Amino acid sequence: MTAERELAAAKRLIATYPLAWLVSRRFSASPLPLLAECDEQGAIVALFGHCARSNPLCADFAEDAGGLVLFNGPAGYISPRLVSEPDWAPTWNYAVLRFTVEIEFVPDETRGAVERLLSHLEGDGAERWSTGALGSRYERLLERIVGFRAHVRSFAPTFKLGQDEREDLFQEITTGHSNAALVEWMRSFVERIEQ
User: Fold this and answer.
1) In this predicted model, what pLDDT tens digit does every residue of 38-70 receive, in sequence order?
2) Which residue of 29, 87, 141, 193 pairs with 23 in a disulfide if CB–CB is 3.0 to 4.6 A?
3) Please, are residues 47 and 120 in contact by the beta-carbon 8 Å criterion?
4) Exposure pattern of 97-108 as b/e (b: 16+ CB <10 Å)?
């Protein structure tokens, strides 16, 4: 797979599965929704989000900015019952991303972090929920959280989505598997590789 296609798959994974584990070097960890920020060439240069000021991660990253961000995308067990090959062994298919990051707290961007995430999750339709519904409570809530930018220092994606299976076995797996999201990723991933 080309680096360009791998990057496109990584951006899609973050957009579709934004909840990631943010882990400090002291092993404090929290699941937090994050958005990818890209440079002019399209490379992921940062992950943007917010967390509670009371979260132990805040104290950890104030002392040592280094950490990890771990995204889990579609995943599922692949049973030998799905294939006609008698000696085929079970496996697990998945798409995951691992980023080594340095955290920068950006308190002046906290409101923007909330609003950008909300736009991503709610969309722009007429039925979109707005923070305006919170009234004066919104300002009080903003005081309890802080925006942060996780600057990417390294990036290690892993896409194990059946791309090494024989074509006939791949078809049996994707036809018989019950996890529609995983099957869709498997099919689109393999089709993009073969292009």
Assistant:
1) 999 999 999 999 999 999 999 999 999 999 999
2) 29
3) no
4) bebebebebeee
**Coil, strand, or helix at residue 67?**
strand
Residue 96 token pair: 């995951």
What are the pLDDT digits (tens) for 157-174?
999 999 999 999 999 999
Kindly state the DSSP code that residue 163 receives in the 8-state scheme. T
Residue type, 173: I
Q: How many domains does the chain have?
A: 1
The pTM of this model reads 0.92
Query: Which CATH number covers residue 115?
Result: 2.30.110.10
pLDDT for the residue numbered 5: 87
Helices 180-194 and 167-176: crossing angle in degrees, nearest 10, is 150
The residue whose two tokens read 């943007």 is 48
Residue 176 or residue 134, greater confidence: 176
Tell me the residue range of the domain where 128 lies. Answer: 3-194
Which residue is listed with tokens 């771990």? 70
Is 58:31 a contact under the CB 8 Å cutoff? no
Q: What are phi and psi of 35, to 5 degrees?
A: -115, 145
Q: Is the pLDDT of residue 87 over 70?
A: yes
**Complete edge-to-edge strand list for the sheet that includes strand 44-52:** 29-33, 19-24, 66-78, 91-105, 145-160, 44-52, 35-38
Count CA atoms closer than 13 A to 107's CA, side-chain side.
5
